[in-house]
């Protein structure tokens, strides 16, 4: 992997999966730049002070200017709201839904657009480049608790596939688009409503329990090292239910394509 990832920008690294991913890449000797929202500035400052050489930004302005050899962008930011449209909907439902869709779907699309030409240009020069976009196992296994989160992550999964197909049409071989699909992981993402969603599943004894953050990160990096035959990173990195969902979708889609005569 050292030949494919050298300078990496990680969005959404002020906690949870993003922060631990940044720490792991830093421990491997990579140049790491992290970003987060303004309210998380103190946390980003703390991480940057703790990890020598790691840098943080609140905004993405001038990232390419400051780091012209940036070869990898990892979009990991996300938020999650729990609500019921029919029973006791929150008074700010529209605001919540717009915020969730903006953060989880629109932001990754805009980030990909912002860095696409830079990464493609480096790839044309023979420098291996990558963009990681984080979807979720809930992109493939929607649940009733998250009526906006699930479709927002399904949108990211779809966007990844489209971006990859458009990249293939350029003929450039040195750039990868990777969809990352985590399972339910023990992070602060759902801390405000975990008790409620557990109750909806019959209580914590019956509710689906999260994978530990450490187990997830170890599995992610293990799959990351499992390369294609040409040495490039795999198109999908799915752990647990995330990987199962990606596999079922891919098999079903390919069967449909073959049935339609669009592929052999």
TrEMBL record:
InterPro entries for the chain: NAD(P)-bd_dom_sf, SDR_fam
Membrane-spanning segments: none
The organism's place on the tree of life at top rank: Eukaryota
Similarity comment: family membership: Belongs to the short-chain dehydrogenases/reductases (SDR) family.
GO MF annotation terms: oxidoreductase activity
Organism field: Triangularia setosa
SUPFAM superfamilies per the UniProt record, alphabetical: NAD(P)-binding Rossmann-fold domains
Keyword Oxidoreductase: yes
Residues annotated as signal peptide: none
Gene3D superfamilies (UniProt xref): NAD(P)-binding Rossmann-like Domain (3.40.50.720)
Swiss-Prot/TrEMBL keywords: Oxidoreductase
GO cellular component: membrane
Protein name: Dehydrogenase
Organism phylogeny: Eukaryota, Fungi, Dikarya, Ascomycota, Pezizomycotina
């Amino acid at each position: 992997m050292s030949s494919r990832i050298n300078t990496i920008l990680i969005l959404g690294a002020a906690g949870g999966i993003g922060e631990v991913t940044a720490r792991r890449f830093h421990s491997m000797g990579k140049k790491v730049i992290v970003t987060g929202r303004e309210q998380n500035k103190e946390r980003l400052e703390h991480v940057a002070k703790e990890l020598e050489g790691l840098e943080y930004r609140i905004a993405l302005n001038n990232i390419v200017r400051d780091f012209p050899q940036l070869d990898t962008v990892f979009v990991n930011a996300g938020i999650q709201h729990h609500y019921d449209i029919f029973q006791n909907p929150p008074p700010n439902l529209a605001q919540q839904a717009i915020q969730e869709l903006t953060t989880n779907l629109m932001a990754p699309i805009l980030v990909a657009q912002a860095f696409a030409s830079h990464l493609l240009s480096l790839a044309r020069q023979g420098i291996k480049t990558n963009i990681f976009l984080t979807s979720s196992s809930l992109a493939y296994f929607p649940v009733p608790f998250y009526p906006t989160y699930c479709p927002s992550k399904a949108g990211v999964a779809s966007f990844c596939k489209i971006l990859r197909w458009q990249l293939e049409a350029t003929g450039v071989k040195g750039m990868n688009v990777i969809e990352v699909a985590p399972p339910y992981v023990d992070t602060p993402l759902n801390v405000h409503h975990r008790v409620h969603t557990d109750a909806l599943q019959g209580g914590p004894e019956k509710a689906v329990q999260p994978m530990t953050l450490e187990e997830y990160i170890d599995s992610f990096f293990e799959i990351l090292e499992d390369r294609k035959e040409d040495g490039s990173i795999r198109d999908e990195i799915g752990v647990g239910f995330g990987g199962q969902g990606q596999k079922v979708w891919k098999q079903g889609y390919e069967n449909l394509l073959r049935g339609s005569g669009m592929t052999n």
